[in-house]
Design a protein that fits this description.
The chain is α+β, with helices and mostly antiparallel strands. The chain has ten helices and 21 strands. It has helices spanning 29-40, 67-75, 105-108, 119-133, 237-245, 248-259, 306-321, 334-362, 367-382, 384-396, and strands spanning 11-14, 17-25, 46-48, 62-66, 85-87, 89-94, 100-104, 114-118, 136-138, 142-150, 153-159, 166-175, 186-202, 209-215, 218-225, 228-235, 265-268, 272-281, 285-286, 289-291, 297-298. The strands form three sheets. Strands 1, 2, 3, 9, 10, 11, 12, 19 and 20 form a nine-stranded mixed sheet that branches. Strands 6, 7, 13, 14, 15, 16, 17, 18 and 21 form a nine-stranded mixed sheet that branches.
Length: 401
């Protein structure tokens, strides 16, 4: 079943070649969201992914999804309601300085500011919906781009281990493969930080409260996940290595020292880390190809913007390819792709500036900046319109403005 097309979405353009009007390379949450959004509007596509079909099902990583993302996924009947832990309050403060603020779902008139979901649970909900829709999907298959475009089509080859390459043509190749680490078309700003991830238990219930604590090492986020807290502990690379090497009790003590005494941590689970950088692709669209999600931009995890931004990429690309609910005649037409790329600039650039500015402002222990940060947090706490602006930016991206 994994090597067969489930629908006639991609049919043979020639006796020895496969054709799909839209080919999506990458069947993670962003690629699946795009395929489902297109199918909802009557536009078929072909999903191709290098991994086995169920490789992501047990992925334990915690994702912070905004309420706006929930609204998008509910329209696709793919919201993992039972697996999502709501965030009703976000407490923001800085260590060693004055100033704090809180944002609440009640104040913004929404059931939750966001939700914390394991990557595997989100992927499973999307994949189940894709199966119900009968989406065309080839797993354990790589897309090799031959770089040739002729007769309004891009010529590719689909590779699967132990088999001859399968020629393929498409009017539009959508890149949704994930973060590019060696692409010269992507500018990279290395933050000199690593994120250490873990799940921890606390002596008291989390009460659906998330914490964003700014420290000289970088932001420390605590997100409610089931009956625990998911930790995103931002530190310099050498400190990340030491934290990974600690036993559980020593890690809990280090986390307690970094966070302070507002919570009492009692136990910690397995840990992992990854380097942090801002990656921005200069051009979102090329000749009969377009980039979405982490292939287009990868942000710092502070404020949880990047993943939600990628899902908005997928949703708006589907809208661009099916205006007024009708599929365009040629999905790879340069004018259509240019319009999509232009429409995404405010959201993606705004998200990049927002997260990058927070990192630069709050990852410095200089006294003048510490005072400025405190005044900024105090202003957010005392001026509701400013607090609403930040909250709506986090919930809906550029549309929240």
């Amino acid at each position: 079943m994994a090597d067969t097309l489930l629908t006639p979405a991609a049919t043979a353009a020639a006796s020895d070649a496969l054709h799909a009007d839209i080919l999506i390379s990458g069947a993670g949450p962003v690629g699946l969201t795009l395929a489902l959004a297109l199918a909802r509007r009557g536009q078929p596509s072909l999903l191709v992914d290098a991994r086995p079909r169920d490789a992501s099902r047990a992925d334990p990583r915690a994702l912070a999804l905004s309420h706006g993302t929930r609204q998008l996924l509910e329209q696709l009947s793919a919201w993992p309601a039972r697996a999502a832990t709501p965030i009703t309050t976000i407490h923001v403060s800085q260590r060693g300085g004055f100033g704090r603020t809180e944002m609440t779902a009640a104040e913004e008139g929404v059931p939750a500011l966001g939700y914390v979901v394991r990557y595997g649970d989100l992927w499973t909900a999307l994949a189940a919906r894709a199966e119900q829709e009968g989406l065309a999907w080839r797993d354990t298959t790589r897309v090799a781009d031959h770089g040739s475009v002729a007769d309004g089509q891009r010529r590719l080859a689909l590779h699967r281990d132990g088999r001859l390459p399968l020629p393929c043509t498409t009017r539009l190749l959508v890149h949704a493969e994930g973060t590019p680490y060696d692409d010269p078309a992507v500018s990279v700003k290395d933050y000199g930080q690593h994120a250490v991830l873990a799940e921890v238990s606390t002596a008291q219930p989390h009460g659906n409260r998330a914490w964003e604590r700014f420290t000289p090492d970088g932001p420390l986020a605590l997100l409610p996940l089931e009956d625990k807290l998911a930790v995103v502990f931002t530190v310099p690379p050498e400190k990340a290595e030491r934290l990974l090497a600690l036993d559980d009790a020593a890690f809990v003590a280090a986390l307690q020292a970094q966070f302070g005494r507002r919570l009492a941590f009692t136990a910690a689970g397995p840990r992992a880390s990854f380097p942090l950088a801002l990656r921005l692709r200069g051009a979102l669209a090329g000749e009969r190809e377009v980039w979405i999600g982490n292939t287009a931009q990868t942000l710092h995890p502070v404020s949880g913007q990047g993943f939600n931004l990628g899902l908005r990429d997928a949703w708006e690309l589907a809208e661009a390819l099916t205006p007024h609910g009708l599929a365009v005649r040629d999905p790879g037409e340069a004018r259509t792709l240019a319009a999509y790329a232009a429409a995404r600039q405010l959201d993606r650039r705004g998200s990049a500036v927002f997260t990058d500015g927070i990192v630069r402002l709050f990852s410095n222990d200089a006294a003048p900046l510490r005072i400025a940060r405190g005044l900024g947090l105090l202003a957010l706490d005392l001026v509701p319109p400013a607090r609403h602006f930040v909250a709506r930016r986090m919930i809906w991206g550029a549309r929240g403005w």
